[in-house]
Amino acid sequence: MNGSDFDIAVIGAGAAGLTAAIFAKQAAPDARIVALDGAPKIGAKILISGGGRCNVTHDVVTPDDFNGNRNAIAKVLRTFTVDETVRWFESMGVRLKREETGKLFPVTDRARTVVDALLRAAEGVEIRMSSRVLSCHPERSEGPGRMGGTTDSPTRPGPSLTLGMTSGSITASRVILATGGRSVPKTGSDGHGYTIVRALGHSVTEVFPALAPLVLPGGHWMTEISGTSTDAELVVRGDSGRVLDRERGSMLFTHFGLSGPVVLDVSRHWILANGTLVANFLPGETFESLDAHFVAEGRRNPHATIASVLRGRIPERLLAKIAGDAVTLGRMTKDDRRAIVRALVEHVIPVVRDRGFDYAEVTAGGVPLSEVDVSTMASRKCGGLYLCGEIFDVDGRIGGYNFQWAWASGRLAGLNAARSLHTRSADG
């Protein structure tokens, strides 16, 4: 279609990148499309997601499930709904099942099923693994210091973009940047995409781990009940005591500290504010309601204990650490009873740090959505450039939400990068 080596080059062959390449090829079957990835194996992050099962999406996904510019996020999500995503995967031979939590997994319970389907759908796309892109820049236009690729018009992108690689370089009329963030760098998302995108005129907000396990001081009693899980409500409070986030879900005690869905969901808020984490191990109860319950039970049966009253509502190992010896309610002092109540519903947890990008499931922060046209994912800073996936300042809750963002934004970028080729041909 032009004098470039490729019509479209996709940098990053993860969930968003493969989706972009697939839809670009469908929209422009004759286009020369290449997907480049620095990792030796394709789909590494997909393969480890969801415990190796790949939580493809969630049955209900709304902008409120994400952190970032929610108006812009909504516009992107509307272009590819959950129902459309399910039908797309079915068209590739991947049937999905809904679990009680609302998470959707392949019926095979194998992430490999998802990767294999994406690769089949990407037929006609040249995929190059172990091909790390080091730089990307527009070819120079006439005139000192001018870069022909810099334009606010995604339909008139100017000259090709040159991709510098570990071995040589290539040119492409359109580039889709799908390099991901910094989470789980062993899969290839080491943050180099931020260097590339900054050189093309974009800004990058502060990036930090999200959906990350949290670490407690060495020897803390919670690490002694490793393997125990419980339903909990977690609250992150700022310096002033203001509630910054509140989540409810399954909490897992580990040898290093805390994990589980509810911990991962609140982690980005704790990290951002370096706040205080407070747990309610009996969600729905307040200090007043639980204290009144113990008083009433003590009057009804003075020989009852905290453990007997709460049996079945909280794991025994956790309750033993909080309530201690089985002193009967009839003999317990008011202060001792209230101390236990507070430890059950307003327990301050002394988190010391998060486990970092190596264990975070997603990256918070990135390129602001205001720097792209969210109807096309075209860059407002560099002509011919499209962005999608985790490189944006968008991060969702645990449960398939971040994959839905990858499918939706990747599809939008791929379709519009391909369509813009036809626009350029018609104009020319």
Chain-wise SSE layout:
Layout: E1 6-11, H1 15-27, E2 33-36, H2 44-48, E3 57-58, E4 66-67, H3 70-78, H4 82-91, E5 96-98, E6 103-106, H5 111-121, E7 126-128, E8 133-138, E9 161-165, E10 169-177, H6 192-199, E11 208-210, E12 214-215, E13 229-237, E14 243-253, E15 257-259, H7 261-273, E16 276-280, H8 287-300, H9 306-310, H10 316-323, H11 334-345, E17 347-349, E18 353-354, E19 362-364, E20 372-373, E21 378-379, E22 385-387, E23 395-396, H12 401-427
Parallel strand pairs: 1-2, 1-10, 2-7, 10-22
Antiparallel strand pairs: 3-6, 4-23, 5-6, 8-9, 9-10, 11-19, 12-15, 12-18, 13-14, 13-16, 14-15, 16-17, 20-21
Helix pairs in contact: 1-12, 3-12, 8-11
Can you put this structure into words, describing what you see?
This protein has about 425 residues and is α+β, with helices and mostly antiparallel strands. It folds into two domains: about 5-210 and about 360-425, FAD/NAD(P)-binding domain; about 215-355, Elongation Factor Tu (Ef-tu), domain 3, CATH 2.40.30. It is about 30% helix and about 20% strand. Strands 1, 2, 7, 8, 9, 10 and 22 form a seven-stranded mixed sheet that branches. The chain has a seven-stranded antiparallel sheet with strand order 17-16-13-14-15-12-18. Helix 1 runs parallel beside helix 12 (about 400-425), helix 3 crosses helix 12 (about 400-425) and helix 8 crosses helix 11. Residues about 140-155 have low confidence and may be disordered.
